[in-house]
């Protein structure tokens, strides 16, 4: 059995190399056309609603230009005790976030939306994963901050990169922490007939 699809019906409306990697690993055929919406114009609401609304805006933006395609939009945030931890702007901010997460459980929320204008279809959802960090020493935080990996990552870490050593356990989707809940995305695309499970021709 294998996942297959026809000519590129899919567009990823994100410049994230991590989301692109996840979809490539899943064997999907797609184009990458990042959305250029002004995220500051998206009204603040509950974290779950905010990331879903933002993902819808990204998908809708690109879908207007390519109405026959299925467009995937997504946004990921890190949540600790109700506070959103964004991308650090300095080493001090990265240190502060990592200290805050050390030995604690936080949540990673990814809102994703899949849109096709010609079919008048928009589906969106927020997926949450609980992530437990190990107790970090001062030396571990300093080393990690100086790798520069934290600086374009929400919460100041990358679970799929060097930051894998920070994570003691997760409860929920791993790919959601990376940036896209692949299981849920593929499940929807199969349901809609965008991709199909094809029988292998090999004996």
What's this entry about, in short?
This protein is α+β, with helices and mostly antiparallel strands and 203 residues long. Helices cover 31% and strands 29% of the residues.
Helix content: 25-40%
Query: If you average the pLDDT, what whole number results?
Result: 91
How would you sum up the global shape?
Answer: globular
Could you give a short account of the major beta sheet?
7 strands, mixed
End-to-end CA span: 11 Å
Return residue spans where pLDDT drops below 50 for at least 5 consecutive residues: 1-5
* The number of domains: 1
Secondary-structure element series: EEHEHEEHEEHEHHE
What class do helices, strands and sheet pairing give? alpha+beta
CATH class: Alpha Beta
Number of helical segments with 4 or more residues: 6
Query: Rg from C-alpha positions?
Result: 18 Å
Description:
Strands 2, 3, 4, 5, 6, 7 and 8 form a 7-stranded mixed sheet that branches. The chain is 31% helix and 29% strand. It is of the alpha+beta class and 203 residues long. Strand 6 and strand 7 form a beta hairpin. The chain has helices spanning 17-25, 47-65, 91-101, 138-146, 174-178, 182-191, and strands at 2-5, 10-12, 30-32, 70-80, 83-85, 105-116, 121-133, 167-171, 195-198. The protein has a single domain (2-198), classed as Maf protein. The radius of gyration is 18 Å and the shape is globular. The model is unreliable at 1-5 (pLDDT under 50).
């Amino acid at each position: 059995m294998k996942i297959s699809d026809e000519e590129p019906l899919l567009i990823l409306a994100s410049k994230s190399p991590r989301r692109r990697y996840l979809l490539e690993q899943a064997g999907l055929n797609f184009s990458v056309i990042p959305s250029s919406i002004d995220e500051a114009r998206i009204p603040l609401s509950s974290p779950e609603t905010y990331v879903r609304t933002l993902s819808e805006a990204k998908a809708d933006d690109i879908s207007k230009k390519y109405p026959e395609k299925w467009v995937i939009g997504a946004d990921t945030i890190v949540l600790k005790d109700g506070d959103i931890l964004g991308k650090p702007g300095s080493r001090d901010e990265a240190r502060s976030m990592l200290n805050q997460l050390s030995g604690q459980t936080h949540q990673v929320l990814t809102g994703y939306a899949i849109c096709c204008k010609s079919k008048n279809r928009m589906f969106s959802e927020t997926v949450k994963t609980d992530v437990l960090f190990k107790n970090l020493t001062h030396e571990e935080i300093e080393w990690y901050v100086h790798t520069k990996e934290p600086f374009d990552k929400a919460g100041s870490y990358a679970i799929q990169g060097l930051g894998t050593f920070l994570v003691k356990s997760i409860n929920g989707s791993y790919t959601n922490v990376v940036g896209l809940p692949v299981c849920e995305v593929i499940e929807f695309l199969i349901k809609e007939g965008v991709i199909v499970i094809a029988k292998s021709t090999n004996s």
